[in-house]
Automatic annotation (TrEMBL):
Coiled coil: none annotated. This is Fibronectin type-III domain-containing protein. Gene3D superfamilies: Immunoglobulins. Residues 120-207 form the Fibronectin type-III domain.
Amino acid sequence: MATKFKALIGFTRMKDDELMVTAATIIGAMTDNVHFEQPTPALAAVQELLDDFSAKLTAARRRGSPEETALKNESRLPLEAALRQLAYYVNGVAEGHLSTLLSSGFPTNGANGSVQVPLKTEGVKLSDGRQSGQVRLDFDKQRNVLMYEYQYRLQGENEWSERFATSSSRANIIAPLTAAERYEVRVRALNTQGTGDWSDNATMVVR
């Protein structure tokens, strides 16, 4: 019996980071997509929900209070609901056509077998930026990765910086940093299947 392909609608088990990556991927893939001319709900509305969730997630991580965490969890629910509604729309339009489904950015039952959680990020290298107080970050690119996250801190400190997102494995500039201090940086990769392990820390004295 032939497989009936469809966009998956389960988001409740995704980690917060995975949900953000998935939502951003879907919005990017469906924007100006000729297969999906009238998304329901509108992509702008989904983007607003994603922006709200992202802001509250950042606040919860910075402050960590029960109130901030509750607000983050509450903002996640309407985003999940909007993505489910959008998945129903995509399935209705695509009618099981796999390439059309994949163009939507949604994970599907026909593609998950070939995509796995990212590997540990390797080849992390720091070098001087163009200006004092800057460091350039490069690392090895991985396949089937939607974005990378990196953090930095003064070597020997306990707390890492907030997480910064990038889609490029080359020429990421970290600034402003304090000259003559040694910093350490770590990187990890994300895709729709999950989050890879943090890389080994790379260190450098900032000029």
